[in-house]
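Structure representation.

___
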Amino acid sequence: MTTVLETDEHKALRAAVAALGTRYGRDYLTKVIAAGAHPDELWSEAAKLGYLGVNLPEEYGGGGGGIAELSIVLEELGAAGCPLLMMVVSPAICGTVIARFGTADQKQEWLPALADGTRTMAFGITEPDAGSNSHRITTTARRDGTDWILTGRKVFISGVDIADATLIVGRAEDARTGKLKPCLFIVPRDAPGFERRQIDMELHGAEKQFELTLDDVRLPAEALVGDEDAGLLQLFAGLNPERIMTAAFAIGMGRYALSRAITYARERTVWRDPIGAHQAIAHPLAQAHIDLELARLMMQKAAFLYDSGDDAGAGEAANMAKYAAGEACVKAVDQSVHTLGGNGLTGEFGLASLITASRVARIAPVSREMILNYVSHQTLGLPKSY
C-alpha cells in the first residue's frame, strides 16, 4: 500500500490558497496592522471560498475535512506573508471542540457561523499564575440552581475584542470526589461581569492580546460544552489542533522569510557573483529549508493521527510538530535577516518584525521546555521533575 502524504485534493487546496494569499500578501497585512485594524477582507474572502471552515462538518456548512486541510490553509497564507492567527483559535480549537462535544443547539448556533466567518470565537485557558500548567487553573465554575457562576482571570487571550464569544476553560467541583475538574463554557462577549483589558505588546500583530476578568459571570446551563465529567478529554481535543495549527503558522512564516532571503541572495551582487553562490550564504538557507520540511512532515503526521481519531498518538506528534516548527521558524527568520544584512532590518523588506513574531511559536501555546518535559516522561518514560 502506498502512503500519500498529500492527496491531489490537498495539492489543489494548497495552490488555491497560495493564490489567494499572494493577492493580499505582506503589504496588505502590514497596512492593516499599522492602521490598528483587522484583516476583515482576507478573512471574509477566505470564508467565502470555504477555507475557514474546511475542517468543520458538511452538515453545518463546513468542508467536511480535518485539521490536515485547515493546516494547509494557514501554512499557505503564512507563506504568502498574511497568516490569520484567529484560524488557530476560532475554527481549529473552538470549532473542533463544539463539533465533537457540543450539544445539537450549540452546533447549530455556532458551527455554520464559524464556517462562513460571520462569527468568531476566542479561547481562554492561560492564567497569570498557571502558565503552561493547565492543572493549576483557578478560574472556578459553581452551580447556582441551573445556572453556572464563573469567577477568575485569564491572560494572553487573542482576539477577544472581535470574538462574539470566548470558550473559557474553568474548573468545577466534582460532586462525587470534591476535586476540581476542567469544564468548558461559552461566554458571550457582552456577558455582565466579563471584562477585558488589552495588553501592551512589543509584538505587533492584527490580533490583539487581552487579560480577562470574570467577576461572577452568570451563564445558563446550556453554556456548558459537552459532558461535565469529560472535561479533560474535551480540553485536549482542542489543544492538539492548537499545537498543529501553531506549527502551520510557524512553517508558513519561516517559508515566507526564506523566500525573501532566497530572492535577495539570487540577485544581490557584492563582488562578481550573486551572494547566493557563496556557500556561507547558501548552506544556512538550505539547512533552514530542510528543517522546515522536516517540521512539516511531523505536522502532517500529527494532523493525520488527529483526523483518524487517535488522540493519544496525535498528542505526542502535535507536541513534536509544534516544537520542531517553532525551532525551524526562528532559525529560518534569523538566517533570512542575516542574509540581507542591514536591509534585513529595514521596513522595505519587512523581515525585522518577524524576529519577534517568530518567537511566539517557541512560547505559545506551550513552551518548548514543557514539550521537552512531555516527551521526557510520556514518550521516554523518564520520571517527572514536577
